[in-house]
């Protein structure tokens, strides 16, 4: 049984995943995209951009008072990001599991951060942490015309409904 109140709408959940500058520089984009495809999620938006500090401070508004905040903005704006929207059942929670703990030193092997990272300041990927947060972040980074509604031909091999 889907754990959502809205039945089929549960497979329409969306999250924002970003390959951070270190991930792009280290040529990890393909491997990260591959993990989400392989799991069965559907890609509904993708672009590469160099983010402004203004956009990044909106994205990370909850962290403005942290002492590492200036370093975070500097790192995140240092070179391009690849940002994506992935869709599927429970995608927000499952992505957080696939990405691993914020600090790669504590992230489990098999997670993106646990396989590709070593220090909290360079943790390779971003993943939204709640359904509401994902909605806010998707609106911040994507125009609605950049998000594609499409039918995946293996849908019935992935889901019952
Ligand atoms: P996330 O949701 O797992 O990405 O973690 P948070 O929302 O708590 O923090 C956002 C981002 O800030 C992290 O992914 C790191 O890039 C960065 N960050 C968090 N804690 C630290 C820290 O102690 N030092 C530094 N340099 N960066 C940090
Ligand atoms: Mg976060």
Automatic annotation (TrEMBL):
It is found in: Cell projection; Mitochondrion intermembrane space; Mitochondrion matrix. ATP binds at residues 20, 68, 96, 102, 113, 123. One of its GO terms (cellular component) is mitochondrial matrix. InterPro entries: NDK-like_dom, NDK-like_dom_sf, Nucleoside_diP_kinase, Nucleoside_diP_kinase_AS. The keyword Repeat does not apply. SUPFAM superfamilies: Nucleoside diphosphate kinase, NDK. Residues 12-149 form the Nucleoside diphosphate kinase-like domain. Pfam families: NDK. PROSITE patterns: NDPK, NDPK_LIKE. One of its GO terms (biological process) is UTP biosynthetic process. Transmembrane segments: none annotated. Its main location: other. Its EC number is 2.7.4.6. The active site is at 126 (pros-phosphohistidine intermediate). Its cofactor is Mg(2+). The keyword Kinase applies. GO terms for molecular function: ATP binding; metal ion binding; nucleoside diphosphate kinase activity. Keywords: ATP-binding, Cell projection, Kinase, Magnesium, Metal-binding, Nucleotide metabolism, Nucleotide-binding, Transferase. It is a peripheral membrane protein. It catalyses: a ribonucleoside 5'-diphosphate + ATP = a ribonucleoside 5'-triphosphate + ADP; a 2'-deoxyribonucleoside 5'-diphosphate + ATP = a 2'-deoxyribonucleoside 5'-triphosphate + ADP. Belongs to the NDK family. HAMAP family: NDP_kinase. This is Nucleoside diphosphate kinase. It comes from Megalops atlanticus.
